[in-house]
Automatic annotation (TrEMBL):
<keyword id="KW-0010">Activator</keyword>
<protein>
    <recommendedName>
        <fullName>Hut operon positive regulatory protein</fullName>
    </recommendedName>
</protein>
<dbReference type="GO" id="GO:0006547">
    <property type="term" value="P:L-histidine metabolic process"/>
</dbReference>
<comment type="function">
    <text>Antiterminator that binds to cis-acting regulatory sequences on the mRNA in the presence of histidine, thereby suppressing transcription termination and activating the hut operon for histidine utilization.</text>
</comment>
<keyword id="KW-0369">Histidine metabolism</keyword>
<keyword id="KW-0805">Transcription regulation</keyword>
<dbReference type="InterPro" id="IPR036482">
    <property type="entry name" value="Regulatory_HutP_sf"/>
</dbReference>
<dbReference type="InterPro" id="IPR015111">
    <property type="entry name" value="Regulatory_HutP"/>
</dbReference>
<comment type="similarity">
    <text>Belongs to the HutP family.</text>
</comment>
<comment type="subunit">
    <text>Homohexamer.</text>
</comment>
<keyword id="KW-0694">RNA-binding</keyword>
<dbReference type="Pfam" id="PF09021">
    <property type="entry name" value="HutP"/>
</dbReference>
<dbReference type="InterPro" id="IPR023552">
    <property type="entry name" value="Regulatory_HutP_bacillales"/>
</dbReference>
<dbReference type="GO" id="GO:0003729">
    <property type="term" value="F:mRNA binding"/>
</dbReference>
<keyword id="KW-0804">Transcription</keyword>
<dbReference type="GO" id="GO:0010628">
    <property type="term" value="P:positive regulation of gene expression"/>
</dbReference>
Amino acid sequence: MSLCTERRIGRHAILLVLESEEDVLRELNWKSCVGKVGSMESNKVVAAIETAAKRHGIINGGVYRESHALYHAIMEALHGVTRGQVQLGSVQRTVGLKFAVLRGNPYENEEEGEWLAVSLYGTIGAPVRGSEHEAIGLGINHI
Protein backbone atom coordinates (compact mmCIF):
# COMPACT_ATOMS: atom_id res chain seq x y z
CA MET A 1 0.00 0.00 0.00
CA SER A 2 1.45 3.34 -0.95
CA LEU A 3 0.15 6.85 -0.70
CA CYS A 4 0.16 8.46 -4.12
CA THR A 5 2.14 11.73 -4.03
CA GLU A 6 -0.14 13.52 -6.50
CA ARG A 7 -3.21 12.46 -4.52
CA ARG A 8 -2.30 13.77 -1.04
CA ILE A 9 -5.82 14.53 0.18
CA GLY A 10 -4.67 16.76 3.05
CA ARG A 11 -2.56 18.96 0.77
CA HIS A 12 -5.45 19.34 -1.66
CA ALA A 13 -7.88 20.21 1.16
CA ILE A 14 -5.56 22.92 2.48
CA LEU A 15 -5.08 24.32 -1.03
CA LEU A 16 -8.83 24.24 -1.56
CA VAL A 17 -9.50 26.25 1.57
CA LEU A 18 -6.86 28.82 0.58
CA GLU A 19 -7.64 28.96 -3.13
CA SER A 20 -9.62 27.03 -5.69
CA GLU A 21 -8.02 24.10 -7.45
CA GLU A 22 -11.20 22.81 -9.02
CA ASP A 23 -9.49 21.55 -12.20
CA VAL A 24 -7.32 19.10 -10.25
CA LEU A 25 -10.30 17.88 -8.23
CA ARG A 26 -12.36 17.34 -11.39
CA GLU A 27 -9.55 15.22 -12.83
CA LEU A 28 -9.46 13.12 -9.66
CA ASN A 29 -13.28 12.88 -9.60
CA TRP A 30 -13.35 14.01 -5.96
CA LYS A 31 -16.24 15.80 -4.26
CA SER A 32 -15.71 19.07 -2.43
CA CYS A 33 -17.37 22.07 -0.86
CA VAL A 34 -16.20 25.28 0.77
CA GLY A 35 -17.88 27.65 3.19
CA LYS A 36 -17.43 30.12 6.01
CA VAL A 37 -18.37 30.07 9.67
CA GLY A 38 -17.82 32.40 12.58
CA SER A 39 -18.80 31.62 16.14
CA MET A 40 -17.91 31.56 19.80
CA GLU A 41 -19.33 28.02 20.02
CA SER A 42 -17.53 24.98 18.62
CA ASN A 43 -20.82 23.08 18.15
CA LYS A 44 -21.92 25.77 15.67
CA VAL A 45 -18.69 25.33 13.70
CA VAL A 46 -19.27 21.56 13.58
CA ALA A 47 -22.91 22.03 12.55
CA ALA A 48 -22.04 24.46 9.75
CA ILE A 49 -19.48 22.09 8.26
CA GLU A 50 -21.75 19.03 8.59
CA THR A 51 -24.66 20.91 7.00
CA ALA A 52 -22.53 22.03 4.05
CA ALA A 53 -21.14 18.53 3.51
CA LYS A 54 -24.63 17.01 3.47
CA ARG A 55 -26.10 19.77 1.30
CA HIS A 56 -23.34 19.37 -1.31
CA GLY A 57 -23.50 15.57 -1.38
CA ILE A 58 -20.07 15.05 0.17
CA ILE A 59 -21.57 12.66 2.70
CA ASN A 60 -24.86 10.81 2.97
CA GLY A 61 -26.31 11.95 6.28
CA GLY A 62 -28.38 8.77 6.49
CA VAL A 63 -25.26 6.58 6.63
CA TYR A 64 -23.77 6.64 10.13
CA ARG A 65 -20.19 5.80 9.14
CA GLU A 66 -20.07 8.78 6.79
CA SER A 67 -21.37 11.24 9.39
CA HIS A 68 -19.04 9.70 11.98
CA ALA A 69 -16.00 9.99 9.71
CA LEU A 70 -16.83 13.63 8.97
CA TYR A 71 -17.26 14.41 12.69
CA HIS A 72 -13.81 13.05 13.51
CA ALA A 73 -12.19 14.93 10.62
CA ILE A 74 -13.85 18.16 11.81
CA MET A 75 -12.74 17.64 15.42
CA GLU A 76 -9.17 16.92 14.33
CA ALA A 77 -9.13 20.13 12.27
CA LEU A 78 -10.58 22.11 15.20
CA HIS A 79 -7.82 20.76 17.44
CA GLY A 80 -5.33 22.41 15.09
CA VAL A 81 -7.14 25.74 15.09
CA THR A 82 -7.66 25.78 18.86
CA ARG A 83 -4.22 24.33 19.68
CA GLY A 84 -5.55 21.17 21.21
CA GLN A 85 -8.36 22.53 23.38
CA VAL A 86 -11.61 22.68 21.45
CA GLN A 87 -13.06 25.48 23.55
CA LEU A 88 -14.21 28.82 22.27
CA GLY A 89 -16.78 30.96 24.10
CA SER A 90 -16.22 29.36 27.50
CA VAL A 91 -12.65 30.70 27.44
CA GLN A 92 -13.54 33.96 25.67
CA ARG A 93 -12.39 32.97 22.19
CA THR A 94 -14.10 33.34 18.85
CA VAL A 95 -13.27 32.09 15.36
CA GLY A 96 -13.85 33.32 11.86
CA LEU A 97 -13.04 30.45 9.52
CA LYS A 98 -13.20 29.39 5.92
CA PHE A 99 -13.58 25.64 5.58
CA ALA A 100 -13.22 23.03 2.89
CA VAL A 101 -14.46 19.44 2.90
CA LEU A 102 -12.98 17.01 0.41
CA ARG A 103 -13.87 13.39 -0.32
CA GLY A 104 -11.72 11.09 -2.40
CA ASN A 105 -9.28 8.21 -2.53
CA PRO A 106 -5.67 9.32 -1.95
CA TYR A 107 -4.21 5.91 -2.78
CA GLU A 108 -3.16 4.35 -6.06
CA ASN A 109 -5.18 1.25 -5.14
CA GLU A 110 -8.90 2.07 -5.43
CA GLU A 111 -9.69 -0.75 -2.98
CA GLU A 112 -8.29 1.42 -0.18
CA GLY A 113 -11.60 3.31 -0.30
CA GLU A 114 -12.55 6.90 0.22
CA TRP A 115 -11.34 9.40 2.81
CA LEU A 116 -12.57 12.76 4.06
CA ALA A 117 -10.38 15.79 4.66
CA VAL A 118 -11.55 18.94 6.45
CA SER A 119 -9.39 22.04 6.36
CA LEU A 120 -9.96 25.22 8.33
CA TYR A 121 -8.25 28.58 7.88
CA GLY A 122 -9.02 31.91 9.44
CA THR A 123 -8.69 33.76 12.71
CA ILE A 124 -9.06 32.95 16.38
CA GLY A 125 -8.84 35.24 19.37
CA ALA A 126 -10.61 37.27 21.97
CA PRO A 127 -14.05 38.50 20.90
CA VAL A 128 -12.62 41.99 20.33
CA ARG A 129 -11.89 43.16 16.80
CA GLY A 130 -8.14 43.27 16.25
CA SER A 131 -7.39 40.76 19.01
CA GLU A 132 -7.16 37.71 16.77
CA HIS A 133 -4.48 35.85 14.84
CA GLU A 134 -4.41 33.40 11.96
CA ALA A 135 -4.93 29.71 12.54
CA ILE A 136 -5.12 26.61 10.36
CA GLY A 137 -6.27 23.06 11.01
CA LEU A 138 -6.53 19.83 9.04
CA GLY A 139 -8.41 16.65 9.84
CA ILE A 140 -8.40 13.46 7.76
CA ASN A 141 -10.46 10.34 8.38
CA HIS A 142 -11.33 7.22 6.40
CA ILE A 143 -14.92 6.41 5.59
